[in-house]
Amino acid sequence: MTDSALHIPAETVRAPRARFWHDLSFWGLLPSRLLMGFALILPIFIIAAVSVATRGAYGGFTWDFNLAGYSQILFNEGWTGELEFTPQYLLIIGRTFLLAGATTLICLLFAVPVAYFISRQPPGRKAALVYLVTLPFWVSMILRVYAWMIILGKDGTLPKLLETLGFPAGMSFMFNDGATLTAMVYTAMPLMVLPVFASIEKLDGTLIEASHDLYGDRWVTLRRVILPLTAPGLTAGAILVFVPSLGAVLEPILMGGGKQMMMGSLIQLQFGGGRNWPFGAAIAMALMALVMVFLIFTALRAAQREATP
Amino acid sequence: MTEPKAIEVKSVSKSFGAYQALKSVSFDIGSNEFFTILGPSGCGKTTLLRMLAGFESPDAGSILLNGKEVVAIPPHKRRVNTVFQSYALFPHMTLEQNVAYGLENLGWEQGRIKTRVGEMLERVHMGPMARRKPAQLSGGQRQRIALARALAPEPEVLLLDEPLSALDLKLRQAMRDELRTLQRDTGITFVFVTHDQEEALDMSDRIAVLGGGEVQQIGTPAEIYEEPVNRFVADFVGETNFLDVEVLETTGGEATIRTPFGLSITVPATGPTAKGRATLSVRPEKINLGNQAEGITFEGRITNKNYMGGYTHYTLDVAGTELRASRRNASREGDTIPLGATVPVGFVAGSARVLAA
Lengths: 309, 357
Prior knowledge:
The structure holds two protein chains of two kinds. By secondary structure, chain A is mainly alpha-helical. Chain A has 13 helices and four strands. Chain A has two domains: about 50-85 and about 275-310, no CATH class; about 95-275, MetI-like fold, CATH 1.10.3720.10. In chain B, β16 and β17 (about 310-320) form a beta hairpin. In chain B, α2 (about 95-105) crosses α3 (about 110-125), α2 (about 95-105) runs parallel beside α4 and α3 (about 110-125) packs across α4. Classes of the chains: A mainly alpha, B alpha+beta.
């Protein structure tokens, strides 16, 4: 070290740090801090606390530390108190990821052409079409899912239509994973179309022309120019669709008939009819952990893409 | 003439809604020619270029590329490449990848692509930057990459859409020379679109002046400048004086006219063949002053004077008619005519043109 007697450590030269309540931005941000604290952080802590509490005899819970909620995800408690492995909840977790993944993929496949089509319209029609995409948000989600029951269910619109086309009468498309998936895709579609539209809209049209000019056909242009340049929008849309889809409650209950459960409906059941709050809270924590893993993975990949020259 | 034609445009029309962008436009472009489409904004020149590239199709008429009808052929199947006004470099690709893009789509093998890309980057002096991305380049460098990318696939025709308009003045002059050299070296037909008449005169083998969706005149730069066929061309290309004159008599390519200041003179005419009102165009540098006055001479009074260094611009009052003249300052004595002086004024009959009113 070459410290001389006159050397002053850098820290002491800096202006003394102002107390945080002297900082105006602290007060400006206070409302949002309070909202986040009470509406997001606090509930998560409550759920985390409940997940390690003990199930009450008649529902509810008591504040005794207990990991039974978590062990229940993988193990069944036998008559004599021994734990035996059970895959039933793992299957539900697997189905949840499968359905959410399928929802994301199907939404992507539909949203890209739709967004591309909208972006090519004249300004007035463009605004109208974007408005139409968001229109379902104005209607309660329960009503929207019920509408699908009317379309797919017994004596519904689709079976009736097929009947007139010569198919056997009385067909029903309800109460299976396909019905659940249909409603999930329908519900999530605007969340995919909007970010994809935003990124396609930003795409410079002359780049597409340049690709065609340089002997790229439609497929090459899509693969080498449009997709790489709209990747951020596609990723945003995928996250916006995949994450809420993992927590889908209404669709598996109403469309899947409640038997083909997903994590969301399972949690709902534990807080309701199942009367096992610690178990419900433990699944919720598990779901949150899995979403975290997914988000961290996506963020790392995005950072990697940025870093490559 | 049996000279091969790179492009034949035959009575091409195009409307956008009620607006008629092109009204039955026809012209031919020879092989290895540096051909410029010159016109003010909104004259239809960009539409025409986009049709050659295949991004627009004409409502009527046909376009032949090396004798083959191409109207129905999509852009990616035309051996034509474009240098876009905004360059349109792919931002997510390196310069190398940008230049290789067209070659890959044409199915060239890797080794050949590598050689060709290296060669093209060298040619535009961008070799050391091959691994950079477009965002790291200056405007002039982007311009060079756009050129390299468009020339790499050895197109039959290179289209350039106002490629110099985004550059600053000094760079523009340098790029003009580079473009011209590139065209001579490669022997590729260049179709250059611009609204800058100076650029057009400087670089082109031939120029088509486009105005109001119609071809006004096609010719060499000197023909366009010295022998404009109508008022639009004379006005758009270079500076000129327009005088309202009366045609007394026309014979062959000449007309005898009466000027507003009372002279009767005989000058070349390209417009009117009948007697009546017409316009006389005389370029300022063709008007000589003082002891240099020759040809048709009269007198004028200097009402304004702008010293420009190499030139001095004079505004003259000739019996109530305003005339502008410019005089080269070949020596310090060039700028000696004082304001307010009445001096002899003259121009050679052959340097003026009578045009339709």
